UniProtKB/TrEMBL annotation:
<comment type="similarity">
    <text>Belongs to the aromatic acid exporter (TC 2.A.85) family.</text>
</comment>
<feature type="transmembrane region" description="Helical">
    <location>
        <begin position="204"/>
        <end position="231"/>
    </location>
</feature>
<dbReference type="InterPro" id="IPR020966">
    <property type="entry name" value="ALMT"/>
</dbReference>
<keyword id="KW-0813">Transport</keyword>
<dbReference type="Pfam" id="PF11744">
    <property type="entry name" value="ALMT"/>
</dbReference>
<keyword id="KW-0472">Membrane</keyword>
<feature type="transmembrane region" description="Helical">
    <location>
        <begin position="116"/>
        <end position="137"/>
    </location>
</feature>
<dbReference type="GO" id="GO:0034220">
    <property type="term" value="P:monoatomic ion transmembrane transport"/>
</dbReference>
<keyword id="KW-1133">Transmembrane helix</keyword>
<keyword id="KW-0812">Transmembrane</keyword>
<dbReference type="GO" id="GO:0015743">
    <property type="term" value="P:malate transport"/>
</dbReference>
<keyword id="KW-0406">Ion transport</keyword>
<protein>
    <recommendedName>
        <fullName>Aluminum-activated malate transporter</fullName>
    </recommendedName>
</protein>
<dbReference type="GO" id="GO:0016020">
    <property type="term" value="C:membrane"/>
</dbReference>
<feature type="transmembrane region" description="Helical">
    <location>
        <begin position="143"/>
        <end position="162"/>
    </location>
</feature>
<feature type="transmembrane region" description="Helical">
    <location>
        <begin position="60"/>
        <end position="79"/>
    </location>
</feature>
<feature type="transmembrane region" description="Helical">
    <location>
        <begin position="169"/>
        <end position="188"/>
    </location>
</feature>
Length: 492
């Protein structure tokens, strides 16, 4: 019996040892798997961040600019004469730099001006309320402060719902509310309120001015130029999408759908989603000083109107692409009947849109727009005439179909004979109708661009000799056009 107990204990000990080894291996394997997964995700993140910075080096430069501004404003803490001048309120300057420094110069100037105005106005009002309340006695002082706090904060909050104020001064209203609450409430317990407000105001102004200087002097990114490039680029994308769409539907049979690049065909979607960006850049552009050929009073809001006209055209193009990709496909014979005139209308629309993009990019009044618009309207009128002849085409095709029983043909047989041609032609008619509507919407873009040329005083186009430029093959045509637009704007 004793020998049996020893064997049992030995077996039990082996089982425990094996269980402990398995548990350790499992835990180690899980830890190694989690560590390897985190390391892989970190490497992937660093790679994506590096590629993003390489594609747009201005983001790297912006990081350096923020570092320079914060390093400069931190001297108020490290340099004793500056620290003695502003006291412990130097942190407000650092907070100002962190809060107001933005990617574009216009956004930075907008936030700094809003912060300085909101802080100044709220500080003066809070000091005035505190002075009046202190003269009313200890019993009425908190009541007066609370009533003024309620009224002014409520009014400032309501002003943020007004569209004109929200577009340009929303941040200033928020800073006004914050500053007034801090100064008025803290002033009830602080005796040296005027000195405290003076120090905070000085540090905020110092931080704001430093942000403006760094943002404007060191490799500035102008919101106006960004808006300028965005609008011209969207015009090119809209033209490319329309050209690919018409070529895909009415083009030769040898041209398959796979040969049409998706980036060009779906480029119009960028136009549909650019409303918020255009409005934001237009608001920031109005704060920027004159730079290059863009002066301080440049009509930035007109670019928003051009963008709205482009979105109207892009929505029509979206409906056109949806109709082309529908299940109800027309026959090749029906496409051939309207191929030439439909492709002519599409080509004329593309020519007009590209000429408008060139007009904005060069900031000159084009001498070819009127001629191109006339040709586009003439082609659209011819397409309308073709659409009016569609019922005759249907009737002609229905009469050419011989009935099986000429004398006893029922009404159902006649309806069936007419129904087949109608279903074959309905898609072509819809596509042609949308092309006619596209012409009308392109004209709205022309009107918006002409209004911009009048407001911005575009000069008449001067014929110059074309110059050939050696361009690196790595640069795409769109990037070349954007760089040319930026160089044009920077010309004095």
């Amino acid at each position: 019996m004793a020998g049996g107990n020893e064997v049992a204990k030995e077996v039990e000990w082996k089982i425990k040892v094996e269980d402990e080894d398995t548990l350790e291996r499992t835990v180690f394997g899980c830890m190694w798997g989690v560590t390897a997964g985190l390391a892989f995700k970190l490497c992937k993140f660093v790679k994506n961040a590096w590629e993003m910075g390489v594609n747009d080096p201005r983001k790297f430069i912006h990081c350096l600019k923020v570092g320079i501004a914060l390093s400069a404003v931190s001297l108020f803490y490290y340099w004793k004469p500056l620290y003695d001048g502003v006291g412990g309120n130097a942190m407000w300057a650092i907070m100002t730099v962190v809060v107001v420094f933005e990617f574009t110069a216009g956004a930075t100037i907008s936030k700094t001006v809003n912060r300085m105005c909101g802080t100044s106005l709220a500080g003066f009002l809070a000091i005035g309320v505190h002075w009046v309340a202190s003269r009313a006695g200890d019993q009425w002082e908190p009541v007066i402060v609370e009533v003024c706090l309620f009224l002014l904060v409520s009014a400032a909050t309501f002003s943020r719902f007004i569209p004109t104020i929200k577009a340009r001064f929303d941040y200033g209203c928020m800073i006004f509310i914050l500053t007034f609450c801090l100064v008025s409430v803290s002033g009830y317990r602080v005796d040296e309120l005027l000195e405290l407000a003076q120090y905070r105001m000085c540090t905020i102004i110092i931080g704001s001015i430093l942000c403006i200087i760094v943002s404007v002097i060191i490799c500035p990114v102008w919101a106006g130029v960004e808006l300028f490039v965005l609008v011209t680029g969207n015009l090119d994308k809209l033209a490319n999408s329309l050209q690919c769409c018409v070529a895909q539907y009415f083009g030769p049979e040898a041209e398959s759908n796979d040969e049409v690049p998706d980036t060009k065909l779906l480029g119009y979607k960028c136009v549909l989603s650019s409303k918020a960006t255009e409005e934001s850049l237009a608001n920031f552009g109005r704060w920027e000083p004159g730079h290059g050929r863009l002066n301080f009073c440049h009509p930035w809001r007109q670019y928003v109107k051009i963008g709205a006209s482009m979105r109207s055209c892009a929505s029509c193009l979206d409906a056109l692409i949806g109709c082309i990709n529908s299940d109800n496909q027309a026959s090749d014979d029906m496409k051939k009947s309207m191929r030439s005139i439909s492709m002519k209308v599409g080509s004329d629309c593309v020519s007009v849109i590209r000429e408008l993009a060139t007009t904005i990019r060069k900031m000159t009044k084009s001498s070819k727009v009127d001629l191109l618009v006339t040709e586009m309207n003439s082609a659209a009128q011819e397409l309308r005439s073709s659409l009016n002849s569609c019922p005759n085409l249907v009737n002609a095709r229905s009469h050419t179909t011989k009935p099986t029983q000429t004398e006893t043909a029922s009404s159902d047989d006649v309806a069936a004979k007419v129904e087949i041609p109608i279903m074959e032609i309905i898609q072509v008619v819809t596509v042609a109708s949308l092309l006619v509507e596209m012409v009308a919407r392109v004209e709205s873009i022309v009107e918006a661009v002409e209004e911009l040329s009048d407001l911005a005083n575009f000069q008449p186009e001067i014929s110059v000799k074309s110059k050939q430029h050696t361009v690196d093959n790595k640069i795409s045509p769109d990037q070349q056009e954007d760089e040319e637009a930026v160089r044009t704007l920077q010309m004095v």
